[in-house]
Write a structure and sequence with these properties.
Elements (H helix, E strand, L loop, with lengths): L33 E8 L8 E4 L2 E4 L1 H11 L1 H4 L3 E8 L3 E8 L24 H20 L12 E5 L2 H12 L26
Length: 199
């Protein structure tokens, strides 16, 4: 089943003070060309996408839907490419590349985001549309219309340089082997540092 979304669809981003503090760079245009490390977590960090066995992620059907839709992002958003991806039991790590498609994306600059509405083809629109599509498909499969699949927000990091890109790629690829210390694992007794991929 194809992922039913486009990267220009309207997605509301909550700016409520009750939400956690935003890590986004002030006035940075997240529709600017570049690589972005993205993490989004399942609702209440529930392990709904599969399980780790002997350091290997075994995706269930919900995890397969998540993987299919993330890989399909470029089909729905022509400026985007997927560089790296791992679906974990309760979260997803990926590197999304927004390509330079002309003068509009020539240099990073002020965001064209209107309050509550991300700019078309921006990272917020891509992630929001991906989350919307996966929620729809998963809820159809488990017959739970309107149920939450994802936490409301997501984490992103602007990747600066090849060294950083390679460290993040290695971190993503090795994530299943570190599940016992993963900060997103509710059962982790000694979680790794918050930004272990920067080490």
């Amino acid at each position: 089943m194809p992922c039913p979304y486009t990267c220009s669809e309207s997605v509301t981003i909550s700016d409520s003070k009750s939400q956690r503090h935003s890590l986004r760079l002030k006035d940075y245009g997240y529709d600017s060309p570049g690589a972005y490390f993205v993490t989004t977590c399942a609702y209440r960090r529930q392990n709904i996408f599969g399980e780790i066995e002997d350091g290997v992620m075994r995706r269930n059907r919900f995890g397969e839907i998540v993987s299919e839709c993330f890989v399909a992002v470029p089909e729905h958003c022509g400026v985007a490419l997927i560089d790296e991806l791992i679906v974990m039991p309760n979260h997803v790590h990926g590197i999304v590349i927004i390509r330079d498609v002309g003068a509009r994306h020539a240099v990073p600059g002020p965001s064209s985001r209107r309050f509550g509405k991300p700019a078309a083809a921006s990272l917020a629109a891509i992630v929001g549309s991906f989350k919307s599509a996966t929620t729809k498909r998963i809820n159809q499969l488990r017959r739970t219309p309107g149920a939450h699949v994802w936490q409301r927000n997501y984490y992103e990091h602007v990747v600066r340089g090849d060294d950083s890109l390679n460290r993040i790629r290695e971190y993503i690829a090795g994530n299943p082997a570190r599940w016992d210390v993963d900060r997103e694992n509710p059962s982790a007794t000694r979680p790794e540092a918050q930004f272990a991929w920067r080490a």
